[in-house]
Amino acid sequence: MKRNLMTIVIGAVLIVIFALLLFVFQVRQSEVAVVTTFGKPTAQPYDKPGAYFKWPWPIQKVYKFDQRVQNFEDRFSQNLTGDSNPLLVMVYVGWRISDAKAFFPKFAGGSTVAAQNMLESMLRSAKSAVVGQHPLADFVNADAKQLKFDAIENEIEQAVQSQLQTNNCGIEIAFLGIKKLGLPENVTETVFQRMTSERQILISRFQYEGEAEAQKIKSAADRQAAETIANADAAATRIRGEGEAAAARVLPVFQQNPELANFLLRIDAIKQSANQRTTLIFDERFPPFDLFRSLPTNAPSR
Amino acid sequence: MSHDHEPDHTHEPPAPAPVTPDDAGSQALAEALRSSFAIVKVVMLLMVLAFFSSGFFTVGPSEKAVILRFGRPVGEGEKVLLNSGWHWSYPYPIDEVVKIPITEIQKVNSTVGWYSTTAEQELSGEELPAGASLNPAVDGYAITADTNIIHTRAMLYYHIEDPIRFVFYFVSASNTVQNALNNALLYTAAHYNVDDILTRDVAGFRDAVLQRVSNLTEQEQLGIAIDQCEVQSIPPRQLKDVFSRVTSARENRNKLLNEAHSYENQVLSQSGAQASSITNAAAADRARFVESITAEAKRFSDLLPKYESNPSLFAQQTLVQMMGPILTNVQDKIFLPQRADGKPRELRLMLNREPPQPKTAAPNP
Q1: Are B143 and A181 in contact (CB under 8 A)?
Q2: What is the pLDDT of residues B161-186, one digit of tens each?
Q3: Which residues of chain A does B290 touch, with a Cβ-Cβ cutoff of 8 Å?
Q4: The whole model's pTM is what?
Q5: Are B111 and A51 in contact (CB under 8 A)?
Q6: Does the domain spanning A70-183 belong to CATH 3.30.479.30?
């Protein structure tokens, strides 16, 4: 009896599991599921994760899609810019399924490959249209205001986005950017030639600039030095003049007695002129030698 | 299912046993079946155990894990992420474990902007020689603001801040980061001039690339934070020589300028020194002149009363005072007394042009 009960319980559990497998389906985080009843999509897509009820296979069927952003890159293709320069452009796109109900019937069984093929053709036309509206200077420009890089990316994105919307593809673009820019192979050679000549101009400019600039610096320094010395000479003359002016204020003192002044000047003159290599010759009348005259030994012998 | 039948089989053989007790063959069969069913029971028990223990899993040191219960992440906020160690979840149909590799720092390299080469070729220095032109299908490059071609590549280091976003919102988030890096290189090169990228503003270029990548990954909400970005840029190999000549010309110019500046410094400091010595000399002259004239005036004023009291005596005294030191200093002193007859003496001087010794002889006839 006990064994039979055990058997029934186990059998019931197995039936429940089997039924759950038939009637319940899971939607993972990052997934979206579309349920079809006899091949026709019904109700809203299940885009929230969790477990849901469905009728078993022949009646309802579940299709699951990755709801995450998928990366796609188109071909590196050549386009003509607005000013007729050939330019190779490659863009990368992040796209995701935004409306699984619309996406599902559009592409056989919701094939992402088919979706990306369609995306590629949309990108090709959008790219050539947008690139054709912009001159090369919009792609590369030192002036941040004239560089339209972001604007070009936005325009391509808008064009693709609006095409996706009019076709009701259930796809949205999360982001779009230029991945690669290039020039046709033969153009690179011309660019190299131009770059070479630009470099040569730079080389000669550096040479002349260096010499001229150095010369300029040196001569400026020389001029400034001469000016400094001339200024100093002028200042020196002025300073000496000040000295003479100060002396002139003292002169009236000497005018009290010009004779004495004259006498003192002569004394000074003699003092200065009489040095060691001087020979002096005196006669007896000159003081202090006049003392000799009165001496008996030197008395004139008559 | 087989479980259901098992009791029946085990029951059946003993039932007919009393009827045919001498059927040794069927008894042996019953024994064999009983023992094999026992083995099956043990195996089934083990399988059930294995089924429940399969819920244990480990999370490695460089990864995190998320449990999805019926497809929905278990836990709230930060708790969603399981750290390294042992964990348990319900077995498959209920729970699913998603492991997210998070090494501390993720690294991504740019794929556009560099000529075709491999790391091995680069290390061994056996790169293929550059052709005359660049094939857009193989060789990557960036176009600068002045439409020059350069090669540039970047290496980006980042870490995942929001693993949930990184894993559940992007099929290949690291690929998206790479594309953002590629885009940033092209975008930044497109508004920098070639000389800025290569020499003048290398750091500025790198910062601008970093800025652009940060902006893009933020806009795209990748759930990452950027740590660092390394950028390397070179001129096309085809133009290596001419670019290096520019560099040496620039260095040469700088050398000339430096020389000129040092000459300038030397000349200016010399002239400054000379100027100050000129003015100083003049100032000294002025001071000395004023000083001496003042001293002179003072002496004059001092002497004046003496002189006025007796001019001739004063003159005599001064003269004698003066003669004293002169006569001591002067080497040759000659005294000529008057001739006895009162006639003037005849005096002959013989002057050497340049007497080696001050010995002027004055013969006395």
Answers
A1: yes
A2: 888 888 888 988 889 999 999 999 99
A3: 243, 246-247
A4: 0.69
A5: no
A6: yes
